[in-house]
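Tokens help. Our protein:
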Amino acid sequence: MVDIVVSTSAYLAFNIVGMQDLDRNLGVEALIENANDHVWRRAFEVLLNNRPSQFTIHGPFLFMDLSHKDCKFDEVIENYKWTFDYSNRYNAKHVVLHPQGYIDNFRDEARESRQGRCLERVNRLAELADEFGANLLVENLCYPEILFEQEEYVDLFRQIPNVKALIDVGHSLIKKWDVPKLLCDLGDKIDAFHIDDNDGVIDQHVKLGDGILDYNEFFDAYKKYCKGARLVIEYLGVPTSEIEKSAEWIRGLAE
């Protein structure tokens, strides 16, 4: 049976208390930087108790651009040590990494230079993940300027073989990627997906079927090339009852 996980993105800030009512057969992905140690310890006591399904973590990404020459990478390392400690403590199946941040001055440095710096830092975080025994996944992004277009993103996993991929299908819509080809090219290098939908312009994180994603085409490719990869529902502003209905539908499409 495919593992269906629900991101805390739908329960930001104090709304996290409402997630305790989520169907216990659905897993939880924690946006780990959205709360402190005290909140997470208390939240996980409630969220993960008697929940046999999987737990995953979305690693820190706010105010973090691995490609920038002035990135405070020592602070990033410490932040990810904290994250990997949570991964070990609660037996997380994966930790998600954004390979870059928003770039507002893209032309002040050669793209190749930024990309090389980014790869070096992703590789260092991959080594750190290995030290902690964590499963680090690199996500595709949808900023106006991205350092890894589709083929470059695929090549990243050849250059850094000890990480795997998390494909955000909503991001791929915005960047107009060929998703069936992406799944074919990466195959078992894909460990998980963020499942969300949008209008092809804005990263809305609406329910699957409420945007433009051809979900039949997607799940045909999913079952052909990477069946069994974890499916993380990453919605915004969607109530629990609607998330549960969507999860049931997604499970049917995936199996």
Remarks:
- The chain has a mean pLDDT of 96.
- Residues 111-132 form the longest helix (22 residues).
- The first strand starts at residue 4 and ends at 7.
- The helical segments are 37-47, 73-89, 111-132, 150-159, 169-174, 179-186, 215-225, 240-254.
